[in-house]
Amino acid sequence: MTAQVALRSRGGAALVAATVLASMVGFVDAYMINVAVPAIGESLGAGVSELQWVLTGYLITVASLLLLAGALADHFGFKRVLIAGLLVMLVASVACAAAPNPGVLIAARLVQGAGGALVVPSSLALLNGSLRRQDRARGIGVWAGLSTLGTTLGPYGGGWLVDHASWRWMFLVNVPLILLALLVLWRLPSAPGSRPLSVDVAGALLAVVGLSGVIFGLTESRWLPVLLGLAALVALVVIERRVRRPMLRLSLFRSRPFDAINAATALFYGAIAAASYLVVLLCQLRLGYGAAGSGAALIPESVVFLVVSPLAGALVARIGTRWPMAAGILLVALAFAWLSAARPGQSYGEAILPGALLWGLGLGLAVAPLTAGVLAAVGDSDLGEASAINDAASRVGGVVLIALVPLLLGVGGAEDFTAPLAARYQPAMLVLAGVTVAAAVLTAVFVPSRRVTVAHPPPSPRTHACAVPTS
C-alpha cells in the first residue's frame, strides 16, 4: 500500500495538482465542447446528427465503461489506471484536433471516452487513498474548489479559443494538461490494487451496446435501435444477477430510497446537461453571442453554487436531506422556465442572468443533500459502489437527455440548429423544466428526510453527481 502523505507537504501538493489536472481533462472533453458545436459544424460541414455524435460519443463510452474501469482500478492500482487513461486521452485528443471529417472526429471522441472512463474513478480515488485520513475531507475540498473554478472558467476559455483561433485548439488544450499530470504522477509512489481482478466483460459489452443503441435511435429518430438497446439493457440486468462478481451489484437496488435518489439523479442531471447545451446554442445562434460570450453566460450559476453549497451541507445536518434537495431541484426547474423566455433583443441581465442565479441557488441547495442521501441509503461497506452507481446515473441521464435535444427541437431534416431553435427552444426548455419537476416529486415522495453530516464536499456543479470515494 502507498505510504500516506500529509496534505500540507510537497507530496500532498503534487497529489492534488495531478488529480485536479486529470479532472480538468475530463471536463474539457465532456462539456467544454458545447461552445464549439456551431464552429465544428461550419468547419467540417457536419449536420445535426453528426454534431450530436461528437457530443454524445464521449459521454456514451464514459457512462458505459465507468463501473468496469472502477474494477480495473481496484485491481491494478489507481495510479496505473489513471496514467493509462490519460495516455489514451492524449492520443485521442490529438486525433480529434487533426480530424479531417466528422467520422474521424466521432471515432476519436469514442476513444476519448474510453480513456475518460479510466480517469474518472481513478483520479479522486487516488487522492482519497493517498492522503492521511485526517486530511482527506480537506484535500477533497481543495480538489473540489479548484475543479469547480476550472469548470466555471473553462467554457469561457474554450470559447475564446474558438473565437480567436480554431475549435481544434480546444482539444489541443488537453495536451499540456495531460503532460503536466503525467509528469507529476510519475513522481508519486505506486501501489498495487487491493482486490482480485474481476472483469465483467459481458456486462460491459451489454452496457455499451444498450446505451449506444438507445442514443443512436434517439439521435436518428429511429425506434428499432432504441428497442434493441433497451433489450440489451434488460439482458444486462439478467446477466448481472447470475455473474459471480458483477459490474453492477443489483442487491443495492433493494433499497427504495436508493432507487428513488438515483432515478431523481438521472432526471435532474440529465435535464441540467441538456439545458446547458440549449442555452449555449441559443446564445450563439439566436442572441448573437460569440463562443466566448456563450461560455461565460452561466458563470454566475457556478459562483452562486460555490457560495450556497457549504450552507446547504449545514442545513442537511439540521433538517435532513429530503426538503433541501426537493426545493433545490424545483428552483432549477424555475430557472429553466425563466431561461425558456429568452429571446433576441433582450439584454443579458434580462434574458440569462436571473435564470443563471436561480440555477446556481437550486444546485447549491440540491447537490449536498443528494450526495448525503445516496451515502445514507446504503450500509458503510457499500458506500464506494453506491457513489459510483450514482455518478454513473448522472452521466447516463446526461447523455440520454442531450441525445433528445434534436427531438425536442423538432430538427427533422434541418442542416443546423438555427431555425429549430427559433421555433422550439421555449417548449424544449419547458419540457426540461418538467423533467426536473419530476425529479423533485420523486425526491419529495420517496427520499427519506434523514439528518446526515456531509463528510466530503461534492464535486463540481454541472458535471456529475455523487463521486465521493470512501475507504
From TrEMBL:
GO cellular component: plasma membrane
Broad class of the protein's primary localization: membrane
Membrane topology classification: Multi-pass membrane protein
Residue ranges of every copy of the Major facilitator superfamily (MFS) profile domain listed in the record: 15-451
Transmembrane portions of the chain: 12-33, 53-73, 80-100, 106-128, 140-161, 167-185, 197-216, 222-239, 260-282, 294-316, 323-341, 356-380, 392-413, 425-447
Key words, A-Z: Membrane, Transmembrane, Transmembrane helix
UniProt cross-references to InterPro entries, sorted A to Z: MFS (IPR011701), MFS_dom (IPR020846), MFS_trans_sf (IPR036259)
Subcellular location: Cell membrane
Molecular function in Gene Ontology: transmembrane transporter activity
PROSITE patterns: MFS
Annotated protein name in UniProt: EmrB/QacA subfamily drug resistance transporter
